[in-house]
Every structure is written in C-alpha cells, then in structure tokens.
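Request: Have a read of the protein record below and say how the chain folds.
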Amino acid sequence: MAAEEDPSRRQFVRKLLLGATLAPLAMVRMNTSRAADLPLLSPDDPEAKKVKYIEDASSQKSATKGNTCATCALYEGAYKSAQGPCQLFPGKHVKAAGWCSAWAPQL
C-alpha cells in the first residue's frame, strides 16, 4: 500500500517528460490562434508606404518575377497560405502575393 501512495521516481520522471513534451505543443496552438486574428496590412498604412508595400507583386515593376511576400525570408505565414505575419509589420498580416522593397531571399 505504501508504494501506491508515494509515487516512485519512475512515475515522476514519466510525468515530467510528458509535461515537457506537451507544453511546447500547447504554446504553438495558442500562438497560431492569436496569429489568425491579426488585421491585414493596408498599402495606405504609413509603415507600408515606407517600404513600397503592394498587395500584388505582379503589378510592381521593381519586383522580379517570383519575388513575393511568400518567398521572402521575413514572411512568417504558413506554406501556401493566402496571407500571414511579416517581421516588418508586427501585429499585422500581409498578402502572400504582395511585395515590398525590403524583400529578402529565403536561405
């Protein structure tokens, strides 16, 4: 009976490993749900104008073919998503098909 009341070291380690495994997964889910609520960046926003942000890269002469927000190193959106967060505009989403003068190649 005494062994059932006092958890063993193995049980403690199992629970610790389970908690250490599940904690990061819970944080990812929380961050993802918050990211979905971000507003879309307007090209008329003063920050967007500083870097010449546009929502459609094909309409910009300065943008090389294939250079879009989705292919930029600063873009943090999910693969093949229509929009996502950008490191330049914290708290806002940008269009994946967009472009700005701060475009950087992904490494």
Residues 1-37 form one domain. The first strand starts at residue 83 and ends at 86.
